[in-house]
Amino acid sequence: MMNYIKSELYRIVHSKGIYILSGICALLLLSMNVVLHLFGQGGHFAYNNTAFVFSMVWSALNTVFFLTLVMGSIIFADEYKNKTISNSIAFGYSRISLYFGKILVGMIVSVAALAAVLGIFIISAYLLLENSGIDVLLKMFRGIGASIPALLTGEIAAITFCFLLGTTTGAIWSWFGLMIGVPMVSEILGMMGKKFDFFARLSKWLVYEVLQDNQIIVTEDGMAREVVMAWMTRDGLIRMILAGVIGIAIFLIWGVLGLRRKEIK
């Protein structure tokens, strides 16, 4: 499988998709720092500091979750259309080894892309904005670290759907339906009284809902003082990690069982 992983890494490194995705993400974050820097030149501006921009990242991890679908699609590419999977099987690789090889490649590429984007973002933030100290940076890293199992669930789900359904379009719609649609429906049903209490409990364990779970602490005069994300509390952190680990296990089992039955042409 190592040869397959090396060949996949070579293919991705020499393709445009990963560079376009990483470049867009880096450009958006860099642009935010530049705009805040320019606004800060006109006088006192409360948001031209690293505390604000780093908080923008850890409070928007549910948005990053959507990028796992894009990353999974880039990793899988048009394998069925190009018949590279059938060729790999004919070459001697098992379908299960191809599946896990894709997932490992996805993890490696995702870590590299994340490191590059964050590197540009952090360096530009410290160069252009007021330094709020190291604590805000460490807080952002804690939030990203806590979300890794949930984000891996999203990417593995995307790759699994691509393998099982055979088309990128079908995989995208299935991913949105299961990863976004189900949490939204569960949350709505959970608000409809005790008869739907199961959905309220279920919603707390779905990765997308966990990523956006937050509590706004307000002052006595009703003004928002602080946003507390799930990972900032002990129970929320445990729930976030467990939800991600459970999600990873479910999709891996689903992928293995599904590929054993699927006829690959």
Q: List the quaternary state of the chains.
A: single chain
- Strand percentage: under 5%
Overall pLDDT confidence: 87
The helix content, as a percent range, equals: over 70%
- How many H/I helical runs? 12
**N- and C-termini, Cα separation:** 21 Å
Radius of gyration: 21 Å
H/E element order: HHHHHHHHHHHEEH
> Which structural class matches the secondary elements?
mainly alpha
Identify the overall geometry. Answer: globular
Biggest sheet character:
2 strands, antiparallel
Strand order of the largest sheet: 1-2
Number of strands: 2
Report low-confidence residues grouped into runs of 5 or more.
218-224
Plain-language structure description:
With 265 residues, the protein is mainly alpha-helical. Helix content is 77%, strand content 4%. The chain has helices spanning 2-13, 17-40, 50-58, 61-76, 79-82, 84-91, 95-128, 134-165, 168-190, 197-203, 207-212, 234-261; strands at 214-218, 224-229. The chain has a two-stranded antiparallel sheet. A hairpin with a 5-residue loop joins strand 1 and strand 2. The radius of gyration is 21 Å and the shape is globular.
Provide tags for this entry:
265 residues, mainly alpha, two-stranded antiparallel ribbon, 12 helices, 77% helix, globular
